[in-house]
User: What shape does this take?
Amino acid sequence: MVFALAGNQNSGKTTLFNQLTGSNQHVGNFPGVTVDKKEGIIRDHTTGEHHFGPRSWGHERHKRSEIPPRAPATVVDLPGIYSLSPYTSEEIVTRDFLIDGKPDGIINIVDATNIERNLYLTLQLIELGIPMVIALNMMDEMRANGNTVDVNGLEKELGVPVVPISAAKNEGIDELIEHALRAAEHRECPRRQDFCSGAVHRCIHGIAHMIEDHAQAAGVPPYFAATKLVEGDEPMQKRLHLTDNELDLIGHSVTEMETELGTDREAALADMRYSFIEKLCAATVVKHGESREHTRSVQLDKVLTGKYTGIPIFLLIMLAVFWLTFGVIGTFLSDVLSAGIDALTAAVGAGLDAYGINPVVRSLVIDGVFAGVGSVLSFLPIIVTLFFFLSMLEDSGYMARVAFVMDKLLRKIGLSGRSFVPMLIGFGCSVPAIMATRTLSSDRDRKMTILLTPFMSCSAKLPIYAVFTAAFFPQHGALAMIVLYVSGMAVGVLAGLVMKSTLYKGNPVPFVMELPNYRVPSAKSVLLLMWDKAKDFLTRAFTVIFVATIIIWFLQTFDTRLNVVTDSSASILAGLGHLLAPLFAPLGFTDWRAATALITGFSAKEAVVSTMAVLTGTNISELGMALQGIFTPLSAASFLAFTLLYSPCVAAIAAVKREMHSGFAAAWVALAQCLIAWVFAFAVFQVGSLFV
Amino acid sequence: MNAFSWFVLACVAVCTVLAVRAIWRARRRGGCGGCVGGCAACPHACGQKGQKAE
Assistant: This one.
């Protein structure tokens, strides 16, 4: 048995999905967290139960012990949408699943605090004629504000079961599962599917009769298909394979309706649905003014999204986050972990010596694995600390405001504030960021955002920045980080301007985004995100970095005849590095080890640091000193500029290829970014040489 | 080379094989490849990560 979990963005779908399945998908106080469908098995839900009152949907509520065992049911978490019109990729994913996936039931999650807007989607879901249950979420918040919903009245008018729940507090979930299973098992389809009257009613019903055969052949409910045709939905027209004559008749009916109502087809249907919702809410919802959360949010927004205060406050917050991460907490914890890793390395080295280990095998373990993986591992606290602060900002609802504030700036480079969401994710990792561009409705905006996202410095580059700033700019660590991040964004802006006037001429789509209420970040959500970061970082360290380290150690320990070299400058790796080194001579770093580290960075950016550690034969606390023998402060700045901008890692290039459906675009991204990085680093070194 | 050296070398070899297998498996199931099915920010939006919930 398969259930689709559908609802508006930020209505709590993923929170409910986690409660239903017991999984830990990331939940954000941020519209558009889910961009693809996710599946999970509904678990036996017996804990934390609380009921909002007696329910009366055709049967008395069973006690758990009386419920017979059932086959496992799957729930599919769909992206948040506002309607079933195929305007964005998310809406297409949801609609395709609902029509072609043939779920046994729909769990429609409705945010009770925004019930009018949420019911707009509900009315369209009802038209699909699939067994459905409405999960009226955030009822705890409604009650706390003294507001109420007549649940029985609501389900009578809509013709589907309505279950009040609080997904965040795990309340009402058992009852929801019961109703959903019952509706699906007994094929209890919505009792009412017609919410219109007058001219719209006549038009829809006329078309529904005309296309009934086509709709049945296409596996679409005739009423739903007719509604979509009245809206002018082109994919539906193609799906139904209508004849020219039928299309003419539909066009005639729609024109007649538009003339009678004095409005266009989409507005006519929206008016019809909202008129019904207005009457329904007047009869069933009692609201005593706006909620405290909303009032507080409006007051905060006057400052945080103010015309003159929005951007300065954002920059101040980010400066504070970077200072705390790189200047205080993260660096301190990182130093502690480095000391621990060094002590462990020394202990293992002594242990190996005590057993008379072969010097080459000792070198593999200590100078290879421990130096390489250890150098990356020590940056774990910095990554976790940075994402602790970012997840706090996201969960509080502030990041959605930043997208709003950034809209004005992004429009200057031909993008809308919506593009800020993937770009923000790009500061974590380019791969999900590129995938998150699916939330953009315009193909032009989407492609531009994919090409610009790699300019946002991903977190895998943090270890490189941290090592170099500690070695060359120890007094200005946080400032150097800010300069690097801002430089990446600035070059991205320049690239955006170039694209706007060449490849992607035109205007971005208007930016409409829901601003969620501010709330105190949830400890569970923040801790889960930190755990995810730590787990993923460790996974990378012990897989990609581990393998890269072994390969680098091998190539720098042996020559082409597989003899162990006494000096690594005679190794296979040195030979390869010497070939590439001249390319970087104009950038100020001629050492073959720098060139080699940049090449390994293609596999994963952290590999730059581990390669340096292996090639210099040092552990993390000595790496800074070793780097000072290879770079000057100016050439280090040039090296940082190059790593900031050069080609994203293999996984990100693969993501570009997948999302752009073009190998050429992926190759172009890799080559163009290397070229831009070279020019930028060249400028840094040459201009810097004038002053140093 | 003594037996202990061979033992350590064998351990490193096994770890390398396991690491390569983890990367290979992640790629086969459509994960992010280089980031082994979940990189630093994947919980935000990675569709592949979602498949793990099954």
In short: Chain B touches chain A at residues 1-2, 4-5, 8-9, 12, 15-16, 19-20, 22-23, 32-47, 49-51, 53-54 (CB under 8 Å).
